[in-house]
Amino acid sequence: MTENSPEPAAAEPGHGGGRLTEFLETLDLRGAGARTDEDIFLGGVENRASGRVFGGQVLAQSLIAGARTVDADRPMHSMHGYFLRAGNVQEPITFGVQRLRDGRSFSARRVHAYQGGKPILSMIASFQTEDSGLDHQDRAPEGIPEPESLPSTAEFLGGFDHPVAREWAYGRPFDVRHASGDIYLCVDDGQRVPHQAVWLKTIGPMPDDPIVHRAALAYASDYTLLEPSLKAHGLPWIAPGMSIASLDHAMWWHRPARVDDWLLYLAESPSASGARGLNTGKFFDRSGALVASVAQEGMIRVPKSQSR
Known about the structure:
By secondary structure, the chain is of the alpha+beta class. 18% of the residues lie in helices and 35% in strands.
């Protein structure tokens, strides 16, 4: 299991370029020069004071590892992964890629992320050459405030002298802006609904490689996806005694998109039971194109007094 909530770090204002550079460096995997039944790659880890690896980072790196074994004209179009163990930020991650199939249009890869010889993530991803066919999509909602009109997380939490607040405010490579009420500190009565809208984009320009943009979108999809399960029950991230971890993650890329342009992230929770919450999400670009869909189930344990 990988902790889903942001971890504290000593990041401070004015170091945005460094955060984005560190993020891109973690996606630049190194080939290990060895192969048995797997292609082997090595990856670094973003520094987080909690000692735990962010789950979105391992998702993104695993997708990059799989893409390194596929022709460049076959971007990833879907992935299904399970978080198996918490990752340690003090150790590099080894990625083993098994080439399951290469067909005329599709390639399938199984990727395991290892630390200490044990898998922390298991993923199967599929890649496809660009093709034409049926085309329809859900419509983007109307009436969502524009991202420029909303406060950034740094503007909202930057004044709090607390390591977790500083991590949320200054330690991310993405600018995240809630359009329907955040749950950092509290949940207003009127916001106790199992859905939300968030705008996000990277804090600076990204390389043009579309594979990097798709992997980065997987990274960002793990930021807030479990929040609708919490909002429905009035639980903020700082609720005492709460324990949360991502269990699995699935994603489908529908259309090209850049993560250094604003994307609208809609999420909802259709069910929570058995100390688990299911959440689904959709990404729209500013033109209204549906660019990706996601789903994740998370472990959510709260004191019995808060189980309502």
